Amino acid sequence: MSISKMLSALCALSILIACFLVSPPLACQAPKDDIDAISFFQTIVQHYNLGAPPKYDDVYKAARQIAASSADDVRVAVPWIIKALHYPDDRLKADAMLALFAIGQRQDGVKLLGREMPALTSLLDLENKQLQLAAVNLLGSLKPAPPLEVKTPILEFIKRDDRDTQAQAAALFVVAAFPKAPDIVQAEKEFLLKPLDKTSRMSALNALGRSTDPEIEGLVAGYLLDADKDIRFTTIQSLMRMGKSAVSTSAATLIKLAEDPQEAPEVRRAAKSALSMTQSSQSR
Amino acid sequence: MVNEQDSVLGFPSGLKFWPYAFFRNVTTAIRTLHLSVNYMVGKTVKNLALPDVTLAPGEAREVVIRDIMTKEPEVADINLVFNYAGDYGDVLPATGSTDATANYVFPVRAQPVAKSGTKTSIFWLASGGFDTMYTVWNPLGISQELLATIHYGTKGEAYNLPLHLEPYASAMIDIGELMRTQQPDQEGKVIPFDVQHGSLDISHATGNPEDLITAVMSGGIYNPQKATCGATCNICSGMTSVNFIPNPFSLLVGGSQQGAFSYSVASGSQYDISGGSQWSSGATSIATVQTTGQSNPGLTTGVSPGGTTITALYYGGIPANAGQVCGEGSWTCPTISPIGGSGSAPVSSPFVVAYSSYIPVDHVDGPSNCTCAAPSCTLLPGSYPEIYMGDGGRGTYRTTESVVVDSEKQSWNSFFQNTGITRNYSHGSPANGSTLSAADEDGIQYDCNLWNDKGQAPIDFSHDESFPYAHQAQSHFSGSSSNPLEVPAPIQWDMRTLIDTTNPVAPTALVNYNHTCYPAHQIKVNGQVVYLYQPPSNDVTYIFGCLALQQGKIVGQQSKSTTVPVHP
């Protein structure tokens, strides 16, 4: 950090601290254009007020600035972000996750967050369903690619019975990024066979569109005749992503869907589009 | 009917009829009657003035007119005319004709002389020895062209007999005689032998109810063998109802509908008077109407949302339907002018309320990576960033809902919903260096190079429409939708748009909005943007916060009221 930048950061920090000390918390808001991003979470953790959490736009700017900082500055900020992550308030956890996500999007994201992987995977244990889903998203988007060490926690997460099924379905997207392995296929099959709500079912079908396992293909194709038109619609698209072979195997059902005058228009269109794949040279 | 009648009528040979006339003054004042007689000698009308008769209060007296018979032994019928200064009903007349034995009596009800429309005898009989005879007299000093229409049969067939009546001339119509002689009418039609009864109209020769006549019609049903007689029962066959259609009008702003104004007469016929009527609108700022003299009288056009009344007035003097006058009473069949009709004209304006969410830039970085692994990947094994095609300024959307609401009709229709196609790209895109284009569409899936994948989110959103007050319509859209190619992170919205047409020329719209802070959210009414949210950033971190963490939601806000165009 340059001297001028340090001076600037110290100045901004002193303004923030003075604000917290002399003014009611509600009046305390981080300066918008010159946020001291590196110490942003330190300040928040030390002076967090449940009644006046920082505004999203300010958290976003701080997260962006942290992510844009040097690796050394990021390393200074990360411990405070992890502390914020452990703060017993979901709003602050969400703020910390935003900063971790921003760091994770750097090409050295995994390297910078490597030591904190246990803390990151522990997010899967949170009770808040929204944060479970965000944690899956965060882990799955690490750059340059999610490290292998998150695979097992995610597979265990998918198998648990006390987790949000929408977040679990989303986790199928993450495991799909790892090289194909029997434990992954097993987790995918088991999950698909679970009783699920509509949204979770559709997420799972979307995620499994990248599978190449014939057994998974067969399980997915079974939802072509689901009672819900949105699930039928999603299933067709999933089969299309699986490729020409998966579509060809289900051609008879797809023809039925495409020609059923009672079928929803979007399902008919999707079925026709899928069938056209079987006549083209396109394959995955 | 006087003297010996034509043998064809069937009366016993030698039977002669004699006229009688009695008058009683029922007032407490003197009434002086001025009397005259008209009768036909061949085809010539003759008029004979009689001495005035002065009736004291309460006095009844016979006026002897049978002397005429001795002077004119060939006369078959006569018309007695009397007038006096006073009110109708001051003098009660009893007139008619009878034979010497008083076994054959034809009473003739005295009738006022006045203009009228068609007069109808509702029943004649010509069977079982009975016959019906009518006398039509022209009491005017000018000739009249009349038309006697004899209706018969279950299908309402008509036998038309033109009557040309010189001044004060009369004509006699005997139904039985027409049948027996099979006399053809002007179209060659005859009344079949087996017809037993029917009705008869006396109208202007045109048959048009508005062409008035001044004619006195008297009829009698008689049996010449049994010596039984009776008067016919007559009515005015005038207007029975006016018809104003449509009512209500169904008008859109800028749209037109042709109004029609007509009237029906007792016969069931309907006459259109749209063209000759004066049409007006209660509020020309809401609807206008063309009137007589313009190209399409009655053509009504919606101007602005609201409600008004369209009125048509016709000054043609249409005869009223004065009802049945089988008993005593005046039978003048008066005319009415003007006649009017009106209908409500709610002018409605459909408002197309459309919501859409869209990515305001052409492409955005995605959170996940494209993992390249052999054999599907032609690149070096590894992870490559994914980018998504946005909606830029192309007018495409991620999600959309629209509906047509009508604040005046308080109705809605044409709900539409859809999701946009999601397309993601990877290494090498944008191929032209800045914007995704055809050069990025290599069509090869999952090779982590250029175009990579596509998908469409399900189309299953919510909407409801309500109408809180008159002139108001509210559209409520809500939904949630995730990119099918990514870990779910839903766009969410809950938008209520209130249209108010209290001021029809300047309707307004305002939006109560709740939505995620990404992407852009927009409400248009009739094509005009009434609410627009543009996210401050399109980078992946901002999107993650807005959608994966659902932070920064915009909730409980209301836009300012905006004037919206009336025409979609």
How is this structure best described in words?
The complex is a heterodimer of chains A (284) and B (568). Chain A has 284 residues and is an all-alpha fold. Chain A folds into 2 domains: 1-145, Serine Threonine Protein Phosphatase 5, Tetratricopeptide repeat; 211-284, no CATH class. In chain A, 67% of the residues lie in helices and 0% in strands. In chain A, α3 (56-68) runs parallel beside α5, α4 (71-85) runs antiparallel to α5 (90-104) and α16 packs across α17 (265-279). Chain A is elongated, with a radius of gyration of 23 Å. The N and C termini of chain A lie far apart (48 Å). Residues 1-33 of chain A have low confidence and may be disordered. By secondary structure, chain B is mainly β. Chain B has 4 domains: 3-108; 119-236, Hypothetical Protein Tm1070, Chain: A; 243-348, Sandwich (Immunoglobulin-like); 351-563, no CATH class. Helix content of chain B is 4%, strand content 49%. Chain B is rod-shaped, with a radius of gyration of 43 Å. Chain B starts with a strand and ends in a 5-residue tail after the last strand. The model of chain B has no long low-confidence stretch (mean pLDDT 89). The chains are: A mainly alpha (284), B mainly beta (568). At the A-B interface, α3, α5, α8, α10 and α12 of A face β33, β34, β38 and α3 of B.
